[in-house]
TrEMBL record:
Pfam families: SBP_bac_1. It comes from the Bacteria. It comes from Kribbella pittospori. The lineage of its organism: Bacteria, Bacillati, Actinomycetota, Actinomycetes, Propionibacteriales. This is Sugar ABC transporter substrate-binding protein.
């Protein structure tokens, strides 16, 4: 998940006029609580002259950094205070909030608004934003999967050919061959920064394709299983041998900068990074190749993430809230952004029609098809080699996972730093996961 951009902007959010209270609001206004990433800021700037002008509905925005907005949304929606009508949630929160009845089902609105064209939304997105009852509870604003990015020129100079669908062992072999291909250049960048959404975003996809899982379908913890251990050792060994300098502190932003600045030859991470790599001022524009997430035992292994819109169940303005969501996640909004701000700023990764749009494809030709294919092949309900107890690819969609994943990630990051062994890190992780699993087994037994 691309948390780095939100952190980048957080320092200025208080003085740039983006924040503030939810505002008042008559019947023709709604209150929206959202994360302060660039795409959302674009939305805020376009709302008054377009959505409000066309509908008469005023939108009062509260815009906060990622960690702050998650905390505020959790407090607001769990209490059902009703102060905010719409909030930006990810596909991690939405199934949990739907089960708790904190957000309203959108299925009736979708049926009554055929121009929204739910069928155009990429199916893995719809699936990941649905509840156990099969109803849709969120609409994506933009989405991403993961793929492998590599310097075509560097590999060519070394006489190395990147397979169209690489395995992790092939990637490790290539990393060794291109290590130090240029002065100061390492073979690959892989996140090592602690955090369930940092190191464990890519690492859990590696675990999946090696045949591992956090939990079995009947809630048996598997953190120190042979498959989980093999995957983690592979990842740690690869980044220690051929990875970026400062790997234990490297997250999305650091790896992005490393690839742009020529410090690494490859990077496995979010598809959303490609827009920065191919930006007009990028020194690596046109030099990057894109192939699917590397695999071992599965056909695909890319993750799935989406910042999305949901309506608070306690909202008394659900009709107007849906009109906002229909506009913000609709086809016409993408065209508006493309024409007003530039096609590189379109919140993509959610609609099939985006990838048929000549204007967008002209801007995103290098990565559009690999991005779409990565999202379309992501299976949030069946990401590995065995059934799972909860939806999720790079996470386990339970409320306890952020704390569990973050605690285990700290030890795995320490293993990358050489302060402990992978076996020791995962033994401690197994104890933590056992505690979580026991709660779920106990509930199932009642």
């Amino acid at each position: 998940m691309t948390v780095g951009v939100a952190l980048l902007l957080s320092a200025v959010s208080g003085c740039a006029g983006w924040g503030g209270g939810a505002g008042g609001g008559g019947t023709d206004s709604i209150n929206v609580l959202m994360v302060n990433n660039p795409q959302m800021v674009d939305l805020q700037q376009l709302t008054a002259d377009n959505f409000t002008k066309d509908t008469g509905i005023k939108v009062n925005f509260t815009v906060l950094p990622e960690n702050d907005v998650r905390d505020k949304i959790s407090q607001e929606f769990s209490s059902q205070a009703g102060q905010y009508d719409v909030a930006s949630l990810s596909n991690f929160e939405i199934p949990i909030y739907a089960k708790s009845k904190w957000i309203a089902p959108l299925s009736d609105y979708i049926t009554g608004d055929p121009s929204f064209d739910q069928d155009d939304v990429l199916k893995p997105m719809t699936l990941s934003l649905s509840g156990e009852d099969g109803k849709v509870y969120g609409e994506p604003f933009y989405g991403e999967s993961s793929f492998l990015m590599y310097r075509k020129d560097v590999l060519a100079d070394k006489g190395v050919t990147m397979p169209a669908k690489p395995t992790w062992q092939e990637v490790a072999d290539i990393a060794a061959k291109v290590d130090n291909a240029q002065p100061g250049m390492r073979g690959i960048c892989l996140r090592g920064q602690p955090g369930w959404g940092q190191i464990f975003a890519p690492l859990t996809t590696v675990v999946n394709t090696f045949g591992g899982t956090w939990f079995t379908q009947d809630w048996q913890a598997q953190v120190n299983s042979p498959e989980f251990t093999e995957a983690t050792k592979f990842y740690v060994d690869l980044v220690r041998a051929h990875g970026e300098l400062g790997a234990p502190q490297a997250g999305f932003t650091e790896c992005l900068n490393n690839l742009i600045q020529g410090n690494v030859a490859m990077w496995y991470d979010a598809t959303s990074a490609a827009g920065s790599l191919e930006a007009p001022n990028s020194p690596v524009k046109g030099k990057i190749g894109y192939v699917p997430a590397p695999v071992v035992k599965t056909d695909s292994s890319g993750w799935l993430y989406a910042w999305s819109w949901s309506i608070q169940e306690a909202s008394k303005k659900k009709d107007n809230a849906w009109k906002f969501i229909s506009w913000a996640s609709g086809k016409d909004y993408e065209t508006l952004v493309g024409e007003k701000l530039g096609w590189s700023r379109v919140p993509a990764g959610k609609r099939a029609s985006t990838y048929d749009n000549p204007s967008y494809l002209k801007e995103a030709a290098a990565f559009a098809t690999p991005t779409k294919e990565a999202i379309e092949t992501a299976d949030p309900r069946n990401p590995g080699t065995q059934p799972r107890p909860a939806i999720g690819i790079q996470f386990v969609d339970i409320p306890e996972f952020p704390d569990l994943g973050t605690q285990v990630s700290q030890d795995v990051s320490s293993a990358i730093a050489g302060r402990m062994s992978v076996d020791e890190a995962l033994k401690r992780g197994q104890e933590l996961a056992d505690d979580v699993a026991e709660r779920y087994r106990s509930r199932a037994a009642k």
